Amino acid sequence: MSTHPMSQPLSHPALSVADPELAALVGAEEQLQADTLRLIPSENYVSAAVLEATGTVLQNKYSEGYAGRRYYEGQQNIDLVETLAVERAKAVFGVEHANVQPYSGSPANLAAYLAFAEPGDTVLGMALPMGGHLTHGWGVSATGRWFRGVQYGVRPGSALIDFDEVRDLARKERPKIIFCGGTAVPRTIDFAAFGEIAREVGAVLVADIAHIAGLVAGGAHPSPVPHADVISTTTHKTLRGPRGAMLMSRASHAKAVDKAVFPGLQGGPHNHTTAAIAVALREAAAPSFRDYAHAVVANAKALAEALLARGYDLVSGGTDNHLVLIDLTSKDVPGKVAAKALDRAGIVVNYNTVPFDPRKPFDPSGIRIGTPSLTSRGLGTDRMPLVAEWIDRSVQAAAKGDEDALAVIRGEVAELLAGYPAPGLATD
Ligand code: DSN
Predict the structure, then answer these.
(1) Which of 13, 271, 285, 287 has its CA 20 to 30 A from that of 262?
(2) Residue 309 sits in a domain of what CATH number?
(3) Ligand 1 atom with the shortest distance to the CA of 43
(4) Last residue in a domain, options 284, 303, 320
């Protein structure tokens, strides 16, 4: 498979000697990420600088506590690293308080429960099959077992959040916490509407912006800051940072949030991750990141238009953000069959339920795609018709079991991508 010189896999000299087997796997993954069109909307390519920060000696250090208040000595540098990350988060998102220690999105959300609810309390969140997240009170999650999860959804037809339902449920159930945000929500989240409902019923509003954090930072999605009490986010999706998370809040909630993360839920923070979050936030503060965020949305809209033109049914009829949810029912190809065929064609997506899906989550009707990664590689709206064409040809090939057609597409994908080197994979 051809690869552009700028996308040659990085070398890992020490790893190659110490553990050639593992080094080979890392190299293979680098090659895969270089050669495939990665459309999973929660994934991205981090910069070489973010990648370097995650591989530093900061990972050798234990730092339970917070800057200036640690349970271990030797924090001369770590305190400064964490303070940099915190201050940058506050500046980028315009928040009064930031905690950069949550290990990832699920622990961050669990810390919000710990801070503002007691086991058995009622929480209101979007149902997983409607686009919500497991940790918003869904039954199989600890959050749905240890708390009383009440779930809202979207309207049949429009697939937009049903705010009458949200308000009615909030008034009836008086939840301690209301979660908004999700993992398969292609439309702008109306934080003001959620904020009004939360205030009316005295609930804490947690805005989970994991998917759209980069869009918020870059001004391509409204900010939840004036409306939400707490903002939860991962740092590795549109924000283009390392695998990690943050909780942000008003100053009045700072103590509760910090106490919940440590010592409530976690031990020592992952300092190498904190450092990489700081680097990513520095990048997110640059003017070019605004261009990136807007380009992600422009690409998603162009891709949605091109798919609609090819007769695809899109949940909610399109997108306002980075994500497009395709309902393949009318194409007579189950989501999982399509996702696996696309994978063989070098286009990486995930199968996904669509609202009111008659099929099961492990074999649903849809696929979920997004544009953060391809935008990081520099693909623009002019390329989206071709991406839609590849998706369409792959779905048709899946329906016919035409493996040769998938192999042809895989070659075309790699050839195009060779001209768009991926950040972090370049040898520059
Ligand atoms: N797993 C993430 C996603 O893909 O959306 C959410 O946690």
Answers:
(1) 285
(2) 3.90.1150.10
(3) 4
(4) 284
Is the CB–ligand 1 distance for residue 266 below 6 Å? no
Q: Annotated binding residue at 94?
A: no
Domain-embedded: residue 30: no
Measured between alpha carbons, how far is 279 from 85 in angstroms, rounded to an integer? Answer: 8
pLDDT 10s digits, 377-412: 999 999 999 999 999 999 999 999 999 999 999 999
Domain tally, the chain: 2
pLDDT score of 72 more than 80: yes
Q: Is 7 contained in some domain?
A: no
* Residue 202 · residue 99 · CB < 8 Å: no
- Residue type, position 58, single letter: L
Q: Which residues contact 333 (CB under 8 A, 6 or more apart)?
A: 395, 398, 399
Q: How many CA atoms lie within 13 A of 220 on its CB side?
A: 30
Mark which of 251, 284, 317 sits at the end of a domain: 284
Do 220 and 366 belong to one domain?
A: no
Residue holding tokens 């998917």? 211
C-beta neighbour count of 358 within 10 angstroms = 9
Report the pLDDT value the prediction gives residue 427, as an integer from 0 to 100. Answer: 42
363: DSSP letter: B
pLDDT band for 11, please (50, 70, 90 cuts).
Answer: confident
**What average pLDDT is seen over the chain?**
96
Which residues on neighbouring strands pair with residue 38, listed in sequence order? 348
Among all residues, which ones are annotated catalytic?
A: 62, 64, 208, 234, 237, 243
With a 6 Å cutoff on the Cβ, whether 42 touches ligand 1 is: yes
For residue 105 and ligand 1, the question of a CB distance below 6 A is answered with yes
Cα–Cα distance for residue pair 69/73, rounded to 1 Å? 10
Give the separation between CA 353 and CA 326, rounded to whole angstroms: 9
Shared domain for 317 and 376, answered yes or no, is: yes
Question: Does 183 contact ligand 1 (Cβ within 6 A)?
Answer: yes
Lowest mean pLDDT among 9-23, 129-143, 273-287: 9-23
Average pLDDT (123-135) is 97
**Same domain membership, residue 189 and residue 162:** yes
Average pLDDT over residues 286-306: 99
Same domain, 204 and 90: yes
- Is 141 inside a domain boundary? yes
Whether 339 has a pLDDT exceeding 80, the answer reads yes
User: Pocket of ligand 1, candidates 42, 235, 239: which has the most ligand atoms within 8 Å of its Cβ, to mutate?
Assistant: 42
Task: Say whether both 103 and 144 belong to one domain.
Answer: yes
**Which residue's CA is minimally distant from atom 6 of ligand 1?**
183
pLDDT, one tens digit per residue, over 169-193 is 999 999 999 999 999 999 999 999 9
The parent domain of residue 316 ranges over: 295-417
25 is in an annotated binding site: no
